[in-house]
Amino acid sequence: MKTYRSIFCFALAALSPLVMGTYAFAQVAPAQSGQVLDYDDIPDVAPAAPAIEDMDFDQRHEACLESINDDPETAFEDAMIWQSRGGGRRARHCAALALFGAGETRMAAAQLEQMGSESRIGPSAMRAEFYAQAADFWLVGQDPRAACRAANSGLEIAKSDTDLRIIRARAYAKLGRWDYAEIDLTSTLAYDPVNVQALIYRADARRRQGKLSEGLADAERALALDELSVEAAVVRGDIREEMRLAKVEGETPIQRSQLATE
Fold first, then answer.
1. Is residue 31 within 8 Å of 37, Cβ to Cβ?
2. For the chain (length 262 residues), average pLDDT per consecutive 10?
3. CATH code, domain carrying 224
4. In this structure, which of 54, 163, 169, 238 has its CB flanked by the most CB atoms within 10 Å?
5. Is the pTM of this model over 0.70?
């Protein structure tokens, strides 16, 4: 069974302008009078999608999420109808992501945060996923304080959740608290030493604080793990440029970072 987080990633991808796969129904031409069609003459026809009422809860959840790309408003209405008929958390989750797809980012975030707060909705790991999605949506909605709140709530029930720590670090960065962001990213790497995204973010957080040597080491480590990472290459380039300028102008990296923030 897919986790809510993996389905969430799929749904976000579906909201982008990507071509979604659809059933390719082949048309079988009617036989002419007197003509007999051999079995090999009949083209393959893809099986029809199962009727909504015949799907189990997980299948219907995925179908609901897939429909968001085509028409998020209709997907939301269908999810609400499903919820009224006992769709439970899956229907509510689809409704929240449909709101996001329709541009109602803050409403979607609030709904997911509410779901995370309900102890009866599911196990702690599932609630943490709802909080992570809520925090991510709050960031998209330009509300880093709300993102911190949701991430904090998630970490209270899933202390080792690295996704929540990375999201909270991003929220701290939005608030200009690069020191707090670095702490969260260091904690993330304690749980997952090969987390490339955490290394990239920490490299940038350290750069912003004038810790250029440490930041460069993080960027180099990220590229060693993923040599095709454009983000890591960009951060490394920024750090090298700052080191070069600091050397030319006779300033320490910390002095440069302080001037940049004034």
1. yes
2. 49 35 28 40 43 67 92 94 92 96 97 96 95 97 98 97 97 98 98 98 98 98 98 98 90 55 50
3. 1.25.40.10
4. 169
5. yes
